[in-house]
Amino acid sequence: MARIALVDDDRNILTSVSMTLEAEGFEVETFHDGQTALDAFNRRMPDMAVLDIKMPRMDGMDLLQRLRQKSTMPVIFLTSKDDEIDEVLGLRMGADDYVKKPFSQRLLVERIRALLRRNDAISTGEVAVTEETKIMERGNLRMDPLRHSVAWKGQDVSLTVTEFMLLQALAQRPGFVKSRDQLMDVAYDDQVYVDDRTIDSHIKRLRKKMRAVDDDFSAIETLYGIGYRYNEE
Q1: SS3 category, 229
Q2: Helices in 172-195 by DSSP H: which ranges?
Q3: Sign of the C-alpha dihedral, residues 199, 35, 5, 48?
């Protein structure tokens, strides 16, 4: 049974969403602010977190930043309907997805399930041995899908589930262009719609992490208006 942490200062949302998730078979913990949630996470990390952005004591952005120092667990942001800046910033900081308020609880459940399925397949190794699960080496890059490990020039790089899957999709065929639509299909289930900006934000975050271990990293090329390409170095 997956444990989901809901962090939101709106008690109505906490009550209604937790009831829905518990009815779907999840174990749910609720928190009214980011600091309380972080204190609890330091004692026991959940399997996934659903975070509001605007909260007292510690907002969702600060909480995500603290989480990413110690965990790559899937994170979904709840954002205001018109808050596009927060959506983009959250994705760049390492969130895996976002859902706009007001939202369909069924949609939120589907996105939670999609992220957990991908996370479980990667972290537990309970997947068939295929081209997608074999250790892959492309020049300076080494990826082990069954261990969810990535190394660049021998240095470990910590990636979220979504970042890992996007890098894997690009690196599998060096020199070939992947459109944003193709990358969406890789990273999200059919029932989950995301726009181009979401993929762009994940790629920017991925590049930032790779450049943290190598200032000269340039293997992921942007082809404006077309998509992205991995160039083997």
Answers
A1: strand
A2: 180-187
A3: positive
pTM over 0.85: no
Count CB atoms within 10 A of the CB of residue 47: 19
Q: Is residue 190 classed exposed, middle or buried when 0-12, 13-18 and 19+ CB atoms within 10 A define those classes?
A: exposed
- Residue in the block written with tokens 């997805």: 97
Grouping H, G, I as helix, E, B as strand and the rest as coil, residue 23 is helix
**DSSP state letter for 44:** S
Q: What tens digit of pLDDT does each residue of 119-160 get?
A: 776 565 554 444 556 788 998 999 887 677 899 999 988 887
Query: What are the structure tokens assigned to 161, written together?
Result: 């589930």
In terms of residues, how long is the chain? 233
Contact between 96 and 72 (Cβ < 8 Å):
no
* CA 219, 62, 85, 191 torsion-angle sign: positive
C-beta of residue 58 within 8 angstroms of C-beta of residue 34: yes
